[in-house]
Amino acid sequence: MEADLITIGDEILIGQIVDTNSAWMAQKLNDEGINIRQITSISDQPEHIISTLNESAGKSSVVLVTGGLGPTKDDRTKSALCTFFGTHLIEHQGVLDHVIHLLAPRGIVINSLNRDQALVPASATVLHNKLGTAPGLWFKHEGTIFVFMPGVPFEMKYLMENEVIPRLNKLFNTLTILHRTILTTGLGESMLAEKISNWEENLPECISLAYLPNPQNVRLRLSARGENKKYLLKLLDKEIKELTEIIPEYIYGYEEDTMAGNIGEILKEQNLTLSVAESCTGGYIAHLITSNPGSSQYFKGGIIAYSNELKIDLLGIDRNVISDRGAVSKEVVEAMAVGARMHLHTDYAIATSGIAGPDGGTPEKPVGTVWIAVAGPDSVFSKVSNFANNRERNIIRSSMTALNMLRLELIKNKTI
Fold this sequence. Notes:
This protein is α/β, with parallel strands linked by helices.
């Protein structure tokens, strides 16, 4: 079973608002075993609405439309529906009574625009909108179910959960669709694909794999489709267990986990503390760490030592080391990590020093060169990475690499 999603409104097309309705509906429908065929945003011109409805008729089982049902003159959806479905508007007494009931406690005397909310296409089944004045409208046309809802998100969600989805479940026998997401870091998409190719090639036919890369990580989404939910859940667990055995060092979490959040859990379990000394990342690592509630339990703070003088004055770096080796070097970044750990009195410290770009590089140290160090109770270690010349991505990748280095070190030293 497939569905099309259509959002109506010039405010979406000019970038004034973001279409969050479609994202929410797509997730909700997917949970019900309904695939999304396409998502479309269109203007509120009647001819555009009609042509878009024609494109979906007969191609999908369900077409869900939001927007354009308000009382003002720029809301033209209902008149377009009369043309498309070959019907006319009538006043619906139940809707009118609801509008009066909704407005009366607010001291609003119903006017012609409010009354127009009770005008509905004669061939529509009216879906009661408890939270607003515009009702939902349900049609069946050329084998396709068309549902029209207000664009106001909380009204749309109410109609979806209380009217639309229950009706669809009665009409259609849908397959179960399950998704599981594995979060990986440390390998690019192509290298990751090569490493897990044998596992991927042997996935059961009912499971598909999608690679979802971004500057922070590569998410692997497993999607299972079938009639037996219990069987699919067991199958997904089995495949994820096999994948974890293949690339254990590259998987840092699942679903909505974050790298910093998982590190925080390990630090809390071990009763350990953390600090940072950031240069090229400019505090982004500290931001990722403190985005997690309760991070004050293990994160003491950081030093943003962007200049060489601060590296010397606040972290105790030997001026001669910076002069001889340069700020972007193994010696300096390790000294930064040790200095942060000592001055901030923590068990572990992360340090970064690099050339984020887009300029400032040299032939020996091009843009994207980043040294990262982790200092712990017994040792300090570092690595150099060569990222690209995009400043924003370099900061993100450097921060994620630094956190992953700490994560692996904590796992290696874990005692409980």
